[in-house]
Write a structure and sequence with these properties.
By secondary structure, this protein is of the alpha+beta class. The protein is 27% helix and 29% strand.
Protein backbone atom coordinates (compact mmCIF):
# COMPACT_ATOMS: atom_id res chain seq x y z
CA UNK A 1 0.00 0.00 0.00
CA UNK A 2 1.32 3.41 -0.97
CA UNK A 3 2.54 5.56 1.90
CA UNK A 4 1.12 9.04 2.25
CA UNK A 5 3.76 11.73 2.40
CA UNK A 6 3.36 14.51 4.91
CA UNK A 7 3.52 17.94 3.28
CA UNK A 8 6.59 19.97 4.08
CA UNK A 9 6.03 22.87 6.49
CA UNK A 10 5.28 26.18 4.85
CA UNK A 11 8.33 28.40 4.80
CA UNK A 12 8.50 32.12 4.41
CA UNK A 13 10.52 33.40 1.45
CA UNK A 14 14.14 34.00 2.36
CA UNK A 15 17.34 32.18 3.21
CA UNK A 16 17.21 28.39 3.49
CA UNK A 17 17.76 28.55 7.25
CA UNK A 18 14.84 30.91 7.93
CA UNK A 19 12.25 29.37 10.30
CA UNK A 20 8.92 28.00 9.00
CA UNK A 21 5.97 30.35 8.92
CA UNK A 22 4.14 30.49 12.23
CA UNK A 23 0.39 31.00 12.36
CA UNK A 24 0.24 33.71 15.01
CA UNK A 25 -3.52 34.03 14.55
CA UNK A 26 -3.93 30.67 16.32
CA UNK A 27 -1.83 31.54 19.35
CA UNK A 28 -3.94 31.09 22.48
CA UNK A 29 -4.37 34.13 24.68
CA UNK A 30 -2.04 34.20 27.70
CA UNK A 31 -3.53 35.28 31.02
CA UNK A 32 -0.70 37.76 31.60
CA UNK A 33 2.27 39.24 29.78
CA UNK A 34 4.76 40.33 32.40
CA UNK A 35 2.78 42.27 34.99
CA UNK A 36 -0.02 43.05 32.54
CA UNK A 37 -3.27 41.00 32.49
CA UNK A 38 -4.36 40.25 28.92
CA UNK A 39 -7.86 40.94 27.64
CA UNK A 40 -7.79 39.83 24.00
CA UNK A 41 -5.73 39.65 20.84
CA UNK A 42 -5.76 42.79 18.68
CA UNK A 43 -3.92 41.44 15.65
CA UNK A 44 -1.03 39.35 14.40
CA UNK A 45 1.53 39.33 11.62
CA UNK A 46 4.51 37.35 10.38
CA UNK A 47 6.79 38.61 13.15
CA UNK A 48 4.63 39.49 16.12
CA UNK A 49 1.26 39.34 17.85
CA UNK A 50 -0.35 42.37 19.50
CA UNK A 51 -2.50 41.95 22.61
CA UNK A 52 -4.83 44.30 24.41
CA UNK A 53 -3.78 44.31 28.05
CA UNK A 54 -4.28 46.41 31.17
CA UNK A 55 -1.84 48.36 33.28
CA UNK A 56 -3.24 47.91 36.78
CA UNK A 57 -0.75 50.37 38.28
CA UNK A 58 -1.78 53.23 35.99
CA UNK A 59 -5.40 52.11 35.42
CA UNK A 60 -4.99 52.19 31.65
CA UNK A 61 -5.41 49.95 28.62
CA UNK A 62 -2.19 49.21 26.72
CA UNK A 63 -1.17 47.32 23.59
CA UNK A 64 1.58 44.73 23.99
CA UNK A 65 3.53 43.60 20.95
CA UNK A 66 5.22 40.22 21.40
CA UNK A 67 7.79 38.74 19.02
CA UNK A 68 6.60 35.46 17.47
CA UNK A 69 8.19 32.44 19.14
CA UNK A 70 9.60 31.08 15.87
CA UNK A 71 11.78 34.21 15.54
CA UNK A 72 13.11 34.25 19.10
CA UNK A 73 16.36 32.58 18.10
CA UNK A 74 16.99 34.84 15.11
CA UNK A 75 19.38 37.50 16.40
CA UNK A 76 18.78 39.90 13.49
CA UNK A 77 14.99 39.83 13.80
CA UNK A 78 15.15 40.06 17.58
CA UNK A 79 17.49 43.06 17.36
CA UNK A 80 15.26 44.80 14.82
CA UNK A 81 12.24 44.24 17.07
CA UNK A 82 14.00 45.80 20.06
CA UNK A 83 15.38 48.66 17.97
CA UNK A 84 11.85 49.59 16.96
CA UNK A 85 11.02 50.11 20.63
CA UNK A 86 14.16 52.18 21.17
CA UNK A 87 13.48 54.32 18.10
CA UNK A 88 9.88 54.99 19.14
CA UNK A 89 10.97 55.72 22.70
CA UNK A 90 13.22 58.52 21.40
CA UNK A 91 10.25 60.42 20.02
CA UNK A 92 7.86 62.54 22.07
CA UNK A 93 4.92 63.34 19.84
CA UNK A 94 1.17 62.73 20.08
CA UNK A 95 1.39 61.55 16.45
CA UNK A 96 3.85 58.71 17.06
CA UNK A 97 2.82 55.68 19.11
CA UNK A 98 4.32 55.84 22.59
CA UNK A 99 6.35 52.96 24.04
CA UNK A 100 5.88 52.79 27.81
CA UNK A 101 7.81 49.68 28.73
CA UNK A 102 9.69 46.65 27.40
CA UNK A 103 10.48 43.25 28.80
CA UNK A 104 11.10 39.59 28.16
CA UNK A 105 8.82 36.63 28.81
CA UNK A 106 9.93 33.41 30.49
CA UNK A 107 10.41 31.81 27.06
CA UNK A 108 12.79 34.69 26.15
CA UNK A 109 10.42 36.41 23.74
CA UNK A 110 10.79 40.22 23.96
CA UNK A 111 7.74 42.45 24.14
CA UNK A 112 6.94 46.16 23.87
CA UNK A 113 4.20 47.90 25.87
CA UNK A 114 2.67 50.69 23.81
CA UNK A 115 -0.21 53.15 23.67
CA UNK A 116 -3.47 51.42 22.74
CA UNK A 117 -5.14 52.68 19.55
CA UNK A 118 -8.75 52.29 20.65
CA UNK A 119 -10.15 53.65 17.36
CA UNK A 120 -8.39 51.19 15.05
CA UNK A 121 -6.38 52.00 11.94
CA UNK A 122 -6.76 54.09 8.81
CA UNK A 123 -7.08 50.81 6.89
CA UNK A 124 -10.09 49.89 9.05
CA UNK A 125 -11.66 53.31 8.49
CA UNK A 126 -11.34 53.48 4.71
CA UNK A 127 -12.61 49.91 4.40
CA UNK A 128 -15.90 51.11 5.88
CA UNK A 129 -16.24 54.27 3.82
CA UNK A 130 -14.11 56.83 1.93
CA UNK A 131 -12.71 59.75 3.91
CA UNK A 132 -14.23 63.17 3.44
CA UNK A 133 -11.90 65.89 2.19
CA UNK A 134 -11.60 67.44 5.65
CA UNK A 135 -10.90 64.04 7.23
CA UNK A 136 -8.20 63.29 4.66
CA UNK A 137 -6.52 66.67 5.21
CA UNK A 138 -6.60 66.16 8.99
CA UNK A 139 -5.06 62.66 8.79
CA UNK A 140 -2.37 63.73 6.32
CA UNK A 141 -1.48 66.72 8.48
CA UNK A 142 -1.14 64.60 11.62
CA UNK A 143 0.86 61.89 9.84
CA UNK A 144 3.15 64.62 8.52
CA UNK A 145 3.72 65.86 12.07
CA UNK A 146 4.53 62.34 13.18
CA UNK A 147 7.04 61.88 10.36
CA UNK A 148 8.65 65.23 11.19
CA UNK A 149 9.02 64.18 14.84
CA UNK A 150 10.66 60.90 13.76
CA UNK A 151 13.00 62.65 11.33
CA UNK A 152 13.99 65.19 13.99
CA UNK A 153 15.20 62.26 16.11
CA UNK A 154 17.06 60.66 13.22
CA UNK A 155 14.52 57.92 12.46
CA UNK A 156 13.19 57.17 8.97
CA UNK A 157 9.83 55.38 8.77
CA UNK A 158 9.91 53.26 5.62
CA UNK A 159 6.52 51.60 5.94
CA UNK A 160 3.92 54.38 5.97
CA UNK A 161 0.63 52.80 4.94
CA UNK A 162 -3.00 52.85 6.15
CA UNK A 163 -2.49 49.82 8.43
CA UNK A 164 0.30 51.68 10.25
CA UNK A 165 -1.71 54.86 10.86
CA UNK A 166 -3.47 54.35 14.19
CA UNK A 167 -6.27 56.31 15.86
CA UNK A 168 -6.49 56.93 19.56
CA UNK A 169 -8.96 58.82 21.77
CA UNK A 170 -7.27 61.56 23.79
CA UNK A 171 -9.01 63.55 26.52
CA UNK A 172 -8.04 67.04 27.61
CA UNK A 173 -9.71 70.17 28.98
CA UNK A 174 -11.64 70.61 25.75
CA UNK A 175 -13.08 67.10 25.88
CA UNK A 176 -12.28 63.91 23.96
CA UNK A 177 -10.90 63.97 20.44
CA UNK A 178 -9.29 61.42 18.12
CA UNK A 179 -5.61 61.67 17.24
CA UNK A 180 -3.81 59.94 14.36
CA UNK A 181 -0.40 58.46 15.13
CA UNK A 182 2.23 56.45 13.31
CA UNK A 183 3.14 53.01 14.56
CA UNK A 184 4.95 49.82 13.60
CA UNK A 185 8.18 51.17 12.14
CA UNK A 186 8.91 47.73 10.76
CA UNK A 187 11.44 48.79 8.16
CA UNK A 188 12.42 51.92 10.05
CA UNK A 189 16.11 52.62 10.19
CA UNK A 190 18.23 55.27 11.78
CA UNK A 191 18.77 57.91 9.11
CA UNK A 192 22.54 57.74 9.29
CA UNK A 193 22.42 53.97 8.75
CA UNK A 194 20.01 54.44 5.82
CA UNK A 195 22.30 57.04 4.27
CA UNK A 196 25.32 54.74 4.49
CA UNK A 197 23.39 51.90 2.91
CA UNK A 198 22.10 54.16 0.14
CA UNK A 199 25.58 55.48 -0.62
CA UNK A 200 27.05 52.00 -0.63
CA UNK A 201 24.37 50.80 -3.01
CA UNK A 202 24.65 53.79 -5.34
Amino acid sequence: RARRCRPAPTRRPGPPNSPPLHDNARVSAPSRLGRYPVRRRIGSGAFATVWLAYDEHLDSAVAIKVLADNWTGDHHIRQRFLEEGRFLRKVESPHVVTVYDAGELEDERPYLVMAYADQGTLADLIELSPLTRSQAVSVITQVGRGLTALHDRGVLHRDVKPANVLFRTVENGRGAHIVAMLGDLGLGKAMDMSSRLTMAGG
